[in-house]
Every structure is written in C-alpha cells, then in structure tokens.
Q: What sequence folds into this?
C-alpha cells in the first residue's frame, strides 16, 4: 500500500488532504503539534475503512521530525501543510521573535521534513512532495504581512531547487499556491473576514482534491507550481479597476 505523510494533518487543508488520500488508497500518517486533532483525523479515516495513524511532531525541531518520520515508515508522498502567521504583522509592531517563529514553521520546517524523506525517495527512485504555500507565495499580498509573505515566497525557490537537483532521481515537487481558503489561520488576521466573504472562499476539501489529483499523475509528470483560487477572487476584486 502507498504511504503518505501529511504534516499539519489535524485541521484545515491537512485534515482534508489526509481524508482524500486515504480514499485514494494511501496509508496515511498525520502529524502536527496537537495530538487530539490528529487522533480525530486518524479515527475518521479508520471509520471510513482506511488506514491511518496519528504521530505528533514539533516541526521546529530536527529530532522530533526525524522521530516522527521513523514512526511513519516508508512513504512515497509528503504533504507539508503546516503554517502560521501572527496578528502583529506590520513593520510598525512586528518583532524579530515573531518573524523567526513564522519563518521556522512555514519554511524551515518544510526543509526538515523534506530532508527526512529524501533518502528513501532516492532509494525508491520515486517520490512526491507537495508544499502547500499561498497566493502570497506567488504574488505579493499586502495583507499577509512581512513574515508570512517572505516565508511563503521562499518556498517557491525551495521547490524549484528540489526539481532541479532531485528530478533526475525520480523525485518531483509542487509549490501549491491556494488563494483564500476558509481555514482557522484566517482568524489570525487583524481585521476579521466577514461571513459572506468566507462563504465565497475555497474549502479545505477543494485544495485536498487538487493535491490528490497532483499525486495521482503518472510518475514522469511534475507540476512545478500550481495556483488555485476561488472564482470570486478577492485578490482581484479588491484591487480591480473594473466597475462591473
């Protein structure tokens, strides 16, 4: 059975992705900080007839990531979906500690997880990495703030370097840049998003379906970067000169 390791699998896009991959026949390991939500995800998968285990991890620590990967066992798909932001995201009140925390979770943690799976991918001659980034990782997004925008933008270069160096070993990586998705991280925005706007956004399940489709492509196909947004895209609407 194919193995998938989903980082950030307790909630939001990560949970939806774990459920989707289990339906697609993967044995899924879900990892993240909070054991309770991880267990809930695994129980949902098992109840639906799939195979899953919950393995807590602190993605900001090398030893924790290595231990979680060892417990996950052999995998051919890594999905990095953990992310964070802070409310004090403007330069006028941003602290270096908060900047470092966001970068460590959004960027450095992806590097740790990728490094842990690469030896097994190389040995197998195949492996897929899907890095869940953001519209802010594709184009400048003022509302994201300095730390989030910088960390997500850097993921694009990280993924390109993987495809540059590891594609010749059969390893492929995708920089997935969703537009606005109705997930818990939206609650960290300084200005709350109105309910009517939330209803227009992508759901975590929409993004999970995209990840499932990317993972299902033939091994010689690599989707280097993919941008997916709601049709009602506030990134356009809020800055458009078109009056309708």
A:
């Amino acid at each position: 059975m194919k193995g998938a390791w989903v980082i950030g699998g307790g909630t939001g896009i990560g949970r939806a992705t774990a459920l989707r991959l289990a339906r697609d026949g993967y044995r899924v390991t879900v990892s993240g900080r909070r054991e309770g939500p991880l267990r809930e995800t695994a129980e949902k998968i098992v109840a639906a007839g799939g195979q899953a285990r919950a393995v807590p991890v602190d993605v900001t620590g090398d030893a924790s990531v290595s231990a979680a990967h060892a417990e996950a066992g052999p995998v051919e798909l890594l999905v990095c979906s953990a992310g964070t932001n802070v409310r004090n995201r403007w330069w006028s009140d941003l602290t270096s500690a908060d900047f470092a925390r966001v970068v460590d979770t959004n960027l450095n943690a992806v590097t740790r997880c990728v490094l842990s799976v690469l030896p097994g991918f190389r040995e197998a001659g195949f492996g897929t990495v899907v890095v869940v980034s953001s519209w802010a990782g594709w184009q400048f997004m003022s509302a994201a703030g300095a730390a989030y925008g910088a960390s997500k933008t850097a993921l694009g270069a990280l993924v390109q370097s993987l495809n540059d160096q590891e594609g010749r070993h059969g390893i492929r990586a995708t920089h997935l840049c969703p537009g606005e998705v109705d997930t818990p991280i939206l609650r960290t925005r300084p200005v709350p998003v109105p309910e009517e706007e939330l209803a227009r956004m992508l759901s975590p399940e929409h993004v999970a379906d995209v990840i499932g489709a990317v993972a299902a492509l033939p091994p010689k196909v690599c989707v280097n970067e993919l941008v997916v947004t709601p049709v009602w895209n506030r990134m356009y609407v809020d800055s458009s000169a078109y009056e309708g």
Observations:
- The chain has one domain: 3-237.
- The beta strands are 3-7, 27-31, 51-54, 77-80, 127-132, 171-178, 225-228.
